[in-house]
Design goal:
Layout: E1 2-6, H1 19-31, H2 35-47, H3 52-64, E2 71-76, E3 83-86, E4 91-99, E5 102-111, H4 117-127, H5 131-147, H6 158-175, E6 179-186, H7 189-196, H8 198-215, E7 221-226, E8 229-235, H9 239-254, E9 269-275, H10 284-298, E10 304-306
Parallel strand pairs: 9-10
Antiparallel strand pairs: 1-4, 2-3, 2-5, 4-5, 6-8, 6-9, 7-8
Helix pairs in contact: 2-3, 7-8
Length: about 300
């Protein structure tokens, strides 16, 4: 059985008994114990939503009929970014989302004015109907990420690259926003496996991908294309800026320590870079970046080539 638990005690604010407050009181007296009403009108609507943002939007819409509020915030314990529907407010009421005696998130009511007693009660009462929809959406997102994530490096995989690349090309066609694609390949990676073993080779892949993710922006994405080859999507980035970023990244990577097996082990990367052009086909950018990568390797490795 899922339930929502008030996270902190609320202060009762007693405003003047205006028409809206009286209407809410009468509605609560009539509906707050009517379980079937809530299940049919709210729970059913929430259960039909498969992502947390849609759930937050539906919940906020239901509340807006009876409670003046600026926004709803839903946060899960494993999420780095919370979902906000509407705007933040000076006054908040926070409720824990709990399932099987385990807290997995919170929902916050945000308002520009003090939250009165009836609004707090109504919010806490309806918050329990968020438990299963939010948990289901959390599990769906987790499964989606698993199918789009490389199990070794925890970067996005090739399927995710194809999906995101198609999306970025459509957006650039529609809005004219630039983006850059980078193909990266570890130089002489076979020598690392042959000398130190595949376990060390895997560790190098993990540490390298972690380092790259730490150097790129949150808006950029890293993908394992295959073997020792990675791909970057640098959003809102022109070719010239992309080249500067990649050259700096290559210099940083070759100065990192990648394995305890040999303190002197260094890793260099070769890169091929290209930017979106009007009427690019789905595979055109990958092909150009791959050709540029080949040129970098043929020219001595440990360098970036733009095409």
């Amino acid at each position: 059985m899922g339930y929502a638990l008030q996270q902190k005690r609320f202060e009762i604010v007693r405003p003047t008994q205006d028409h809206r407050t009286l209407a809410l009181k009468k509605w609560l007296e009539k509906q707050v114990l009517n379980e079937k009403f809530l299940e049919l009108e709210l729970s059913q609507a929430l259960q039909s939503k498969l992502d947390i943002r849609s759930i937050a939007r539906q919940f906020s819409t239901t509340l807006s009929t009876y409670i003046d509020h600026s926004g709803i915030q839903v946060s899960t314990t494993d999420a780095k970014v919370v979902t906000v529907e509407g705007k933040t407010g000076q006054y908040t009421e926070v409720v824990d989302l709990i399932l099987d005696e385990k807290r997995f998130g919170t929902v916050t009511l945000m308002a520009q004015q003090p939250i009165n007693q009836w609004s707090a009660i109504f919010f806490r009462y309806l918050a329990r109907y968020l438990v299963h929809p939010v948990r289901n959406a959390q599990l769906i997102e987790s499964l989606r990420l698993q199918t789009m994530t490389d199990p070794l490096t925890q970067t996005f995989n090739r399927a995710a690259l194809e999906h995101d690349l198609h999306h970025e090309m459509a957006r650039s066609t529609r809005e004219g926003t630039p983006f850059t694609v980078v193909m990266l390949d570890i130089d002489h990676f076979k020598r690392i496996n042959d000398r130190y073993g595949h376990q060390v080779g895997d560790q190098v892949l993990i540490e390298l991908s972690n380092h790259i993710r730490g150097e790129i922006r949150d808006s950029d994405s890293l993908y394992r294309y295959g073997g020792e080859e990675f791909t970057l999507i640098l959003r809102n980035t022109e070719l010239e800026d992309g080249v500067k970023k990649v050259e700096a990244l290559l210099n940083q990577c070759k100065n990192q320590h990648y394995s305890e097996a040999d303190p002197d082990l260094r890793v260099t990367l070769s890169a091929g870079i290209t930017s979106w052009r009007d009427h690019d086909a789905d595979n055109a950018m990958i092909e150009r970046a791959d050709q540029a990568l080949y040129h970098s390797k043929e020219s001595g490795r440990d360098r970036a080539t733009a095409k």
